[in-house]
Q: What sequence folds into this?
């Protein structure tokens, strides 16, 4: 969480969720600008009860979402135990 809060100051632009939470989950450089993104809403939309997931499981979901974004990989919640 500390990095996520501090990273906001280094971003040129933030997505809506990052603006609201004042936390950045990951950054990308787009056209020379540092863009900050927060994946919380995408995680909430992907799983039925995110409150039942521990930190390691949420991290695995974040990795899958990033792989999907960057490499067009499939997000498969059933793969979480394998990733962990």
A:
């Amino acid at each position: 969480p500390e990095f996520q809060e501090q990273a906001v100051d280094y971003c040129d632009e933030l997505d809506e969720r990052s603006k609201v939470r004042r936390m950045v989950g990951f950054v990308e450089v787009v056209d020379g600008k540092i863009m900050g993104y927060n994946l919380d809403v995408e995680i909430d939309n992907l799983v039925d009860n995110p409150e039942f997931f521990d930190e390691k499981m949420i991290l695995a979901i974040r990795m899958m979402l990033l792989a999907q974004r960057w490499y067009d990989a499939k997000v498969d919640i059933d793969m979480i135990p394998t990733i962990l």
